[in-house]
Amino acid sequence: MGVVVALAASLCLVLLVFAGVVTCSPGQRNLRRSQSRSLCAQIIQPTGYPCSEHTVQTKDGYVLALQRVSAHAGGDIEVNPGPPIFLQHGLFQGGDVWFMNSIEQSLGFILADHGFDVWVGNVRGTDWSHGHVSFSEKDKEFWDWSWQELALYDLAEMITYVYSVTNSKIFYVGHSQGTIMALAAFSQSDIVEMVEAAALLCPISYLGHISNQFILRMVSMHLDQMLLAMGIHQVNFRSDVGVQLVESVCDGHVDCSILLSFITGTNCCFNKSRVDFYIEYEPHPSSSKNLHHLFQMIRKGSFARYDYGWWGNLKQYGYPQPPAFDIGCIPKSLPLWMGYGGNDDLADVMDVEHTLKELQSQPQLLYLDHYGHIDFVLSVTAGEDVYNNMIGFFKSCGKPSIS
User: Fold this and answer.
1) How far is CA 345 from the centre of its chain?
2) Which one-letter DSSP state was computed for residue 373?
3) CA–CA distance, 376 with 389 (Å, rounded to integer)
4) Annotation marks residue 127 as catalytic
5) Whole-angstrom Cα distance, residue 203 to residue 346?
6) Nearest to residue 27, comparing CAs of 283, 272, 251, 278?
7) Backbone angles phi, psi at 330, to 5 degrees
8) Is 101 left (phi over 0), alpha (psi -120 to 50) or beta?
9) Which residues 6+ apart lie within 8 Å of 235 measured at CB?
10) pTM, whole model, 2 decimals?
11) Alpha-carbon span 333 to 366, nearest angstrom
12) How far apart are CA 60 and CA 43, in angstroms?
């Protein structure tokens, strides 16, 4: 029984590591939410911003949701849209994360107010997307993917859709896992040619220098492999079991607010006043295979495709080792902006510097010594600290219609 309790506690804390928005406290029981309404209807349209829902289907059969958001005050999405910009969330998050802060500090609303044609992505498995053409979420096959498929299938299909609808190259913004996806995808010529410029918040391609002892302990325990061996293919803390697990670990036993800072790094400016609102929508499910792929990156210090083992790699790739994603292939002509923080225990500064050395180009950098991993999307001063600089970068790329 003690092993089960320890595993449950570990799972809850691993979720906190990568989700970054879960804060548990006594009395919070709002972990189950209705999935009957859309992201537009639940979060964006009530604020007065026009929003439309779109769907795309990936080559391997997943049906994904995208949202398109325009300026406030009754603006028409289809009339004189500004330059398209695509927002990609991180692990255990959905497109809602770009609208979780106050209107004045949420990047999705800020970009719309500046005249951008805002598009929001939601990867497979998240609550806003729409499943699979053949599998249900109860099928293990539904969860047979990692960030590799998110980059090469989900992101590729969503970018292609926005490119075709707008007839324009797009600006890209990603956070955390959204940067892993971008750097992998942009190394593929057919995807990067549709991108005008990209901004990466807490950029990750290497994870070899994570120094947080808790994360390293989970890696050394092979928690990821334990999940797969136990037949747990989905990591979902909004299932009945997941809700009970989070409540039992956090309620009266663990101060998850403190753990959030302890694990991700000290977040200087996290908007704690909106915790109840965050928990209404976060976290979203992901796959155990995805967690396994991330832990492989930590163990090996590599930025490579999923490792199936010697024989599995031969069958999958034709090589005994998984091929690396070569970010040196990202064109020098692609303008890049990166924002990272000195208190980020996930996107370690040394790993960011490793990424910078491999790129052909020299990205424009914003380094905030006091910022942690979550501050870049949920800081009470994100607009002033981060987004003004980012928008200045996009303006410098020469697209019209940005106010």
Assistant:
1) 16
2) T
3) 12
4) no
5) 10
6) 251
7) -65, 125
8) beta
9) 11, 15, 92, 227, 285, 286, 287, 288, 291
10) 0.89
11) 20
12) 29
* Known catalytic residue at 373: yes
d(CA 143, CA 120): 22
Beta carbons of 86 and 149 less than 8 angstroms apart: no
| Angle of helix 288-300 versus helix 2-19 axis, rounded to 10 | 80
Would you call 103 helix, strand, or coil by DSSP?
coil
CB atoms within 10 A of CB 316: 15
Identify the active-site residue in 70, 106, 146, 176.
176
Query: Which residue in the list 344, 345, 351, 375 is annotated as catalytic?
Result: 344
Q: Which of 366, 360, 349, 179 is nearest to 265 (CA)?
A: 349
Work out the number of other CB atoms within 10 angstroms of the CB of residue 326.
12
Both structure tokens of 209? 């220098």
Six-digit token pair at 171? Answer: 């600006």
pLDDT tens track, the chain, 403 positions: 333 333 444 455 444 443 333 333 333 334 334 444 799 999 999 999 999 999 999 999 999 999 999 876 555 555 557 899 999 999 989 999 999 999 999 999 999 999 999 999 999 999 999 999 999 999 999 999 999 999 999 999 999 999 999 999 999 999 999 999 999 999 999 999 999 999 999 999 999 998 777 777 878 888 889 889 989 899 886 665 555 555 555 555 555 555 556 666 678 998 777 877 887 888 899 999 999 999 999 999 999 999 999 999 999 999 999 999 999 999 999 999 999 999 998 899 999 999 999 999 999 999 999 999 999 999 999 999 999 999 999 999 976 666 6
Q: Which residues pair with 53 in a beta bridge?
A: 67
Structurally, at CATH architecture level, domain 2-396 sits in 3-Layer(aba) Sandwich (3.40)
Residue from 114, 233, 284, 373 carrying the catalytic annotation: 373
- Number of C-beta neighbours around residue 230 at 10 A: 10
Show me where the domains of the chain are located. Answer: 2-396
Q: Contact 108/89 with Cβ under 8 angstroms?
A: no
Helix (H) or strand (E) holding 67: strand 63-69
Is 176 catalytic? The answer is yes
